[in-house]
Amino acid sequence: MSHNLKTNNPVSSNSYVSVVKTTSKPSFPKKDQAIVMHADDNPKLFDYVKEIGDIVGPKHISFASRISNNGICIYLANSNLFDDLLKSHASVTISNIIISIRRLVSPTKRIIISNISPYIPNDLAENGIKSLGLQLTSLSCS
């Protein structure tokens, strides 16, 4: 017994594709959008989120959680919000405790120089790097 199913829906498969293309995709938070604060024992996660939300606006907080080493990580809607937050508030007060705000990931760049001849003295290599306008963070020769 065969049945011919007919639908009265005039929507073609092309319109489904166009709907999918026009629907906004959820954006997952990135590391450069996150702030980290030290978590004290008394305040709850909500207290941290509320304090940051009072500054940047609650709709600009995407995600918050406790992390290892007694930390609180709060993801903001975009990385520009962090820059604005840090310019206006380097720290926040939560339950009468002053807590500093920092990035989850430092925006520094690392350049690794390898295979330098052992006959080139370290101070000569350091001076060459400094002459390029780069700042040395460490120099380990092993």
Topology readout:
Elements: H1 13-22, E1 34-38, H2 45-56, E2 61-67, E3 71-76, H3 79-88, E4 91-94, E5 97-100, E6 102-103, H4 122-131
Runs in which pLDDT lies below 50 for 5 or more consecutive residues are none
- Describe the main β-sheet briefly: 4 strands, antiparallel
Continuous helix count: 4
| Biggest sheet strand line-up | 2-3-1-6
Q: In the CATH scheme, what's the topology name of the domain at 31-103? A: Alpha-Beta Plaits
Oligomer: single chain
Radius of gyration: 26 Å
Q: What amount of the residues lies in strands? A: 15-25%
CATH architectural category of the domain at 31-103: 2-Layer Sandwich
Structure commentary:
- It is a single chain.
- This protein has 142 residues and is an alpha+beta fold.
- It has a domain at 31-103: RRM (RNA recognition motif) domain (Alpha-Beta Plaits, 2-Layer Sandwich), CATH 3.30.70.330.
- Helix content is 30%, strand content 20%.
- It is built from four helices and six strands; from the N terminus they run αβαββαβββα.
- The protein has helices spanning 13-22, 45-56, 79-88, 122-131, and strands at residues 34-38, 61-67, 71-76, 91-94, 97-100, 102-103.
- A four-stranded antiparallel beta sheet has the order 2-3-1-6.
- Strand 4 (91-94) and strand 5 (97-100) form a beta hairpin.
- The radius of gyration is 26 Å and the shape is elongated.
- It starts with 12 loop residues before the first helix and ends in an 11-residue tail after the last helix.
- 8% of the residues are buried.
- The mean pLDDT is 79.
